[in-house]
Specification:
Strand 16 (about 485-490), helix 13 (about 505-520) and strand 17 (about 525) form a beta-alpha-beta unit. The protein contains 22 helices and 25 strands. Helix 5 (about 160-180) packs across helix 11 (about 375-405). The chain starts with 10 loop residues before the first strand and ends in a 13-residue tail after the last helix. The longest helix has about 35 residues, at about 95-130.
């Protein structure tokens, strides 16, 4: 046998279409020692690669190896490195099996990638419509982790029967809570893990058993709560038949476990042990106190203490041999030792034996109670599943109560009607009710109006309520009729991405094209500021082209725009209607009311005139925009005066000193200066003499130089604090010490050296 460390390159490629095995092999004398060992799938090439090793590592590889060996196919290497091709026919079942498995794996990968793509798309849509914020509020109303996770993963329901059932559950839970209050649900935290421990033969602690008892109590309360709903003939209330509170087990745990520990009354043996322990501890304390009183002069304190689980008395170190007992511990200073008296030791040993018996009895009781949990694990798990499901259902009802929402009517006739609709995340008092309807021949709505007029909020309100309804929730309307949609496609927001070099317009177009690829007749499309972010003329043309594609698809769509040509297109196109957001011209405030059937205006000139833009500027704007003049109502609003200029702060330039100013400047010690013509920086260490020569500290030396060859860079006042001792910079340590001693009046032996 050739050692495993020797690697022999060998690859067998199987083409799945022709069932041909291409074997590249080279001969070797001991070729029979090698077998096919590993199979690696290469999806993008539809090829299976087989590598040579020491022994087979998979059943598929082993089958191939046996098949090849049965046909006397040579494996291994040879000195001349020849290649050989062996063709296999369709009768090889192995290849058929491999093809089937490969196709299965490919299909799974494709489905997974598709699911991930859809998840990403849905998450992006949720963010644009703010459904993620709705989910956040919704999750806070749920108690169990199951319900929270289900809410986070919630997607629009595409089955009409499932959707009707989900909305009915929401309505019934709301009715139950309106009549009987919120249900006594429990979070069930840790219950699944405890049941699993019991099923695996483990032992639950007293705290865990008490948690099980509390959960069973919650089941009992929930069962009674649902029984009250049967009086109203609410179908949701009949879920109580699937709840079993296991009253007998609950009562047994309640009797034997209290306050996180096994109760004294759990068994006669346990009660006896604990009573004996208490008596022994009392006797031990009495004897310890007696020993302290007998040797009062030897004690460091008047109180006994517990050290390392032993009852000890504090004895002075020098008297430890005069007290009968064992040293257990000592103080931090070592002056006091803590001793267990000999008369106490016997009681301590007895207590330890009693505690062992107590612990064994507690363990027996815990195992017994755990066995009950194990025997009824299936029932408890059913209770868990039921409570989790009810928690999810009641969370929908709680959300409906909190937002005062209404049950929507679902249809598949592509009709949407919202009466007194509002955005769920806006305050109800400040929100203007929305009246909206589309369908019955109307497939698209083009909304126009001034900026900040509520166009975006209006289309978000429609789409968000539709998505909420299709997730089984109630909608924030007085009355609503919602059609089912196969997909929600949105283009809202800027979309600018600097990391991917996407401008606002590029991002919009990329998103719009993606929407047009995925759109169908059952889609709901929301687009904000259609065709914006580029040249107005070209943007208008692109907007109309997009509307044409949306119309051809048969989908329902809502778009907002400022282009007048788009308004005209909608006016003259079947299936598309104009709508506008109202605007109060007197107060210059939007009214946030949607009027379907009328085209709106941006009111830009009107707002600009009311805000004080001069008449001349508005006339220039009107001429440039419409090649016309201002309307009479705008002329009356316009200000005839020109814009009044306000005085703003000016930039203060740095003043450059003249030659005369530079000459008159008296250099001070510490000034940073530039020496010409070398343009080197130095620091003035001695002021100029009568000849105008100053001394400058250069790197490693001091020089004398005429002040005419020096230019000030930074004054010393800007570099150093006031009264700074420059001897630190310019003098040596030895000289500074000598001067310091001389200043103190001492007679010194030495000389001050001046560094040149």
């Amino acid at each position: 046998m050739i050692p495993f460390s020797i690697t022999i390159p060998f690859v067998v490629s199987v083409r799945l279409v022709t069932y041909t095995v291409l074997i590249r092999c080279v001969r070797e004398k001991n070729a029979s020692a090698f077998y096919a060992c590993e199979i690696r799938r290469v999806c993008h090439r539809d090829v299976l690669s087989f590598c040579i090793g020491e022994e087979p590592k998979s059943g598929l590889a082993r089958d191939l190896g046996d098949c090849l060996q049965s046909r006397n196919v040579p494996f291994g290497t040879s000195g001349d490195l020849c290649a050989r091709t062996v063709l296999f026919c369709r009768e090889i079942p192995f290849l058929k099996q491999m093809k089937k498995r490969t196709e299965t794996v490919k299909s799974e990968i494709k489905k997974k990638n598709k699911k991930q793509t859809r998840s990403f798309e849905m998450n992006n849509t949720e963010k644009q419509l703010e459904f993620d914020k709705v989910k956040a509020v919704w999750k806070e109303l749920a108690l169990t982790e199951y319900a929270k996770n289900k809410i986070a993963e919630m997607r629009p329901i595409l089955s009409e029967n499932e959707l009707s059932a989900a909305i009915r559950e929401t309505s019934e839970s709301k009715i139950l809570m309106e009549k009987n209050g919120f249900p006594p649900l429990d979070s069930l935290q840790g219950l699944k893990e405890w049941v699993m421990i019991a099923e695996k033969g483990g032992c639950l602690s007293a705290e865990q058993l008490e948690g099980v008892e509390m959960a069973l109590t919650a089941v009992s309360r929930l069962k009674k709560y649902l029984e009250q709903g049967k009086i109203c003939e609410i179908s949701l209330a009949y879920y109580e038949e699937n709840l079993d509170p296991l009253t007998e087990i609950r009562d047994r745990i309640r009797m034997q476990i209290r306050s996180g520990r096994v109760d004294d009354q759990a068994s006669k043996l346990l009660k006896t042990c604990r009573n004996q322990i208490e008596k022994e501890e009392d006797a031990m304390r009495q004897k310890a106190d007696r020993a302290m009183r007998a040797g009062k002069s030897y004690m460091a304190d008047s109180f006994s203490t517990i050290r390392n689980g032993h009852l000890c008395i504090p004895v002075k170190k020098e008297y430890k041999n005069k007290v009968a007992g064992i040293v257990i511990d000592q103080s931090s200073t070592g002056n006091t030792v803590f001793m267990e008296p000999a008369v106490v030791s016997r009681h301590y040993e007895e207590i330890q034996l009693l505690k062992i018996r107590e612990e064994n009895e507690e363990r027996r009781i815990l195992y017994e109670l755990t066995a009950y949990i194990h025997d009824n694990a299936e029932v408890i798990e059913q209770n868990i599943r039921m409570i989790e499901k009810l928690d999810f259902i009641f969370s929908k009802g709680k959300l409906s109560l909190e937002w005062d929402a209404a049950e929507p009517k679902i249809n598949t006739e592509r009709k949407i009607v919202l009466e007194d609709g509002r955005h769920p995340l806006m305050e109800r008092k400040s929100c203007v009710p929305l009246q909206f309807s589309m369908g019955e021949g109307t497939r698209g709505v083009v909304i126009t109006g001034p900026n900040t007029g509520g166009k975006t909020v209006a289309i978000k309100t429609v789409a968000l309520n539709c998505m909420m309804a299709q997730c089984g929730l109630h909608v924030t309307c007085r009355r609503a009729m919602i059609c089912m949609n196969s997909s929600f496609l949105c283009d809202i927001g800027d979309g600018q991405n600097l990391s991917e070099n996407l401008s606002t317009f590029s991002a919009h177009i990329a998103n719009v094209l993606d929407i047009l690829r995925r759109i169908n007749g059952e889609s709901l499309v929301i687009m904000d500021e259609l065709g914006s972010g580029t040249d107005p003329t070209e943007g208008m043309g692109i907007a109309i082209a997009i509307l044409e594609e949306l119309k051809k698809s048969g989908a329902l769509f809502l778009v907002t725009t400022h282009y007048p040509e788009v308004k005209q297109y909608a006016e003259h196109t079947d299936g598309i209607v104009n709508a506008r957001m109202t605007f109060d011209k007197e107060s210059l405030k939007p009214l946030y009311q949607l009027v379907i059937g009328e085209a709106g205006e941006s009111c830009a000139f009107y707002i600009a005139g009311r805000m004080g833009m001069p008449k001349t500027m508005l006339e220039t704007a009107a001429k440039a925009a419409y090649n016309g003049t201002l309307p009479e109502e705008l002329k009356q609003l316009c200000n005839e005066e020109t814009l009044k200029k306000t005085h703003a702060a000016k930039v203060q330039k740095r003043k450059t000193k003249t030659a005369q100013e530079s000459k008159s400047y008296a250099f001070q010690i510490g000034d940073s200066v530039m020496i010409y013509p070398d343009k080197k920086i130095g620091i003035v260490c001695q002021t100029a003499n009568e000849k105008g020569v100053l001394r400058v500290q250069m790197p490693q030396k001091k020089i004398w130089i005429n002040q005419k060859r020096v230019k000030l860079q930074v004054a010393a006042a800007q570099l150093y604090p006031e009264d700074y001792d420059f001897s630190i910079v310019f003098d040596t340590v030895e000289n500074r010490k000598l001067r310091h001693q001389m200043d103190r009046g001492k007679c010194v032996d030495g000389e001050i050296r001046i560094v040149l």
